[in-house]
Amino acid sequence: MTVDDERILLERVAAKDRRAFERLYHIYYPRLFGYILKLTRRIDLVEEVLNDVMLAVWAGASRFAGRSRPSSWIFGIAHHTALKALRRRSRYVEEPEEAAGEPVADEEPESLLVRREQRDLLGQALARLPLEQRAVVELTYFHGFSYPEIADILACPANTVKTRMFHARRRLREILPQLGIGAASGGGEGDRP
Q: Which CATH number among 2.40.50.140, 3.60.140.10, 1.10.1740.10, 1.10.3810.10 corresponds to the domain 3-88?
């Protein structure tokens, strides 16, 4: 689906078109579910936050100004809604009950095990980052947003996003070897952690 298609869909939602809303919900549900879970690390909050986000999209679609992609606007709502939910609930669950990735049909059991172990270790590393840094890493590497888009989502300057990414990468270079993952490559702005 293109950005223009999403804008049209959001315009239809603003006009209270229930079918358009259902379609938008089905498009965004998996992405938002994963983002909210990784951000909050609270499986018990995900559905509640996701429902609040989609209710806010339904109620506020007419206020979407079109200055950003619809996905940036929706993820911004998700980010702020998740933070509010975390503040409301003080308990913290160390290990969320994330669903295991589905095996690829022809994947060998050994490679599947290695992939799951790496995913779990990366999850542990990300969990050690401060929430603000973790959000920037998640939005960049797992959801494909640019720094200006992340700045819109987090309601902060783009330079703040860059600074958070710098500190997240530096911290991950310390954490990953402790977890048995090879040292992350240092270097330029385009390097992945």
A: 1.10.1740.10
d(CA 69, CA 4): 9
Q: Are 65 and 2 in contact (CB under 8 A)?
A: no
Q: Degrees (nearest 5) of the Cα angle 142, 148, 149?
A: 50
Q: What band does 101 get if pLDDT is binned at 50, 70 and 90?
A: very low
**Distances, alpha carbon 31 to alpha carbons 38, 65, 74, in Å:** 11, 22, 11
> How far apart are the C-alpha atoms of 155 and 40, rounded to whole Å?
18
- Contact at 8 Å (CB) between 191 and 137? no
Rounded CA-CA distance 144/138 in Å is 9
Weakest mean pLDDT among 10-24, 30-44, 90-104: 90-104
Assess contact for 42 and 95: CB atoms under 8 A: no
For residues 77 and 57, the answer to whether their CB atoms sit within 8 Å is yes
For domain 110-178, is the CATH number 1.10.10.10?
yes
> Amino acid identity of 76?
G
Query: Is the pTM for the entire model greater than 0.70?
Result: no
